[in-house]
What does this fold into?
Amino acid sequence: MQTYRLTRDIQVEEDFDVLVAGGGPAGSAAAICAARLGAKVLLAEATGCLGGMGTSGLVSTFGPVSDGKRMLVGGFMRELVLSMHQRGSLGPHVVPEFLHSQLNRWVPFRPEELKRLLDEMAQDAGVEVRFFTRVIDAEAKDKRVEGAIISNVEGYRFIRAKTFIDATGDAALADLAGAECRVILRDIEAVAPSTLCSLFAGMNWGDPAYGDAISMRPTRSKGRLRDYRRSRRARLCNSNSRSSPRTATRNRQSQLAARWEGTALNPSHLS
Ligand SMILES: Cc1cc2nc3c(=O)[nH]c(=O)nc-3n(C[C@H](O)[C@H](O)[C@H](O)COP(=O)(O)OP(=O)(O)OC[C@H]3O[C@@H](n4cnc5c(N)ncnc54)[C@H](O)[C@@H]3O)c2cc1C
It folds into this structure.
């Protein structure tokens, strides 16, 4: 394989106490909590919103956070769930009693409202968020990260900070800084199996076939919903996983095609 040595003089920014790479649930919590404690925080997020898999990945349910009697989480997560509830951003069955006792079940939320809430919390805390900004490299010496290179439409920047937090979901910054990591397709072949997350609107909630539609089980009636879990497309790997860009692009295209077919439901499901 031919290689090319990249040498560039790039602008340095060194005003930050903390650089957080990735603004998913982990990175948002880390950045907001650090800023509330007085740290000057830069949060670099590759996409155009906070929330990671919970928003841009449409994984729009909070996992169980209760033992069936009381809520077991505190801190940022508790604040987030309670704020989402106050805003009416959780599922319609999440009444106050359910909220405090029954959160040992999966609780659906509206991803667009989580994006907005995280934006507000980050702004209120004074986090400097940069969307469409990817951490692409790092400098480390004696097992200590000295700086990270970010890339966005302004070009490359070298960010110096006292602390670096890898919240990329892929350990991307840790890997770039030389920590021991096993990377899909480089060190291991197995890729996570696919889950196709989609949102459907305009459903006819009174249609008895709705239960089948939401669980994606094959319906008994001919010509209704297809079982995407069994289709070839649904088994392709998740496009957010760290596969090669070519594979990820092909998977993304197939998933979007499958999603499009999924909307071609029998019209009786639509109100
Ligand atoms: C298919 C699937 C279904 C799931 N279902 C559920 C569920 O129902 N309920 C539940 O609670 N959990 C669920 N999970 C788990 C949950 O999504 C994860 O635990 C959670 O998203 C992890 O958060 P995170 O912040 O660590 O990473 P992520 O959510 O992956 O966020 C990482 C963020 O970093 C950004 N990023 C990545 N690389 C870079 C880079 N180099 N520079 C800058 N930014 C970068 C990404 O754009 C992303 O915004 C599911 C996960 C998957 C994959």
The mean pLDDT is 81. The longest strand covers residues 155-166. The pocket of flavin-adenine dinucleotide is lined by residues 21-27, 44-47, 52-54, 59, 61-63, 106, 134-135, 167-170, 172, 195, 238 (CB under 6 Å). The longest helix spans residues 245-262.
